[in-house]
User: Fold Probable cyclic pyranopterin monophosphate synthase from Natronobacterium lacisalsi AJ5.
Amino acid sequence: MRMSEETDADGDAEAEAEDLTHTTDDGDVQMVDVGDKPDSERRAVAAGEIRLQPSTVEAIRADEIGKGDVLATARIGAVQAVKHTWETIPMCHQIPITNVDTDFSLGEDRVECEVAVETTGKTGCEMEALEGVTTGLNVVWDMVKAVEKDEDGQYPETGIENVRVLEKRKRTP
Assistant:
């Protein structure tokens, strides 16, 4: 069934295929053409958290994780991910990143991460902020996995949660 022929539970027609920006009229995937759009100052902020054992958070706080400085390494990973988002999200444009701010905070049983990305260009940067958060949290997991594992090598108390976009702004210069 073509997209334009589908209906939802209320019987309303779904969006026409030609209204979908990442699909051609034939249903093929395509990158959106942003060539005619004006440059705008853009900012996106994303956040998320990794749930850990309280003893792991204390070890991070005391810089007692064997692999090294967990949060410094996670910051580097987050920034690298922001800069390489276009390589991992298939329809993302390569955009000029003008600034990346990372903030990690330690709770009792979690590490919270917030990444703000700024660009001046033709398309937004929320995917870059999300990539920064998820990679930053994955780096935390990688750095602490030896102390997070249970006796069976599993991670029953570890989880990345609540990843979301907090803010998206666009300002035409």
About this structure: Residues 1-18 have pLDDT under 50 and may be disordered. The chain is about 30% helix and 25% strand. Residues 65 and 144 are 7 Å apart (CA to CA). The chain has two domains: 1-30, 40-171.
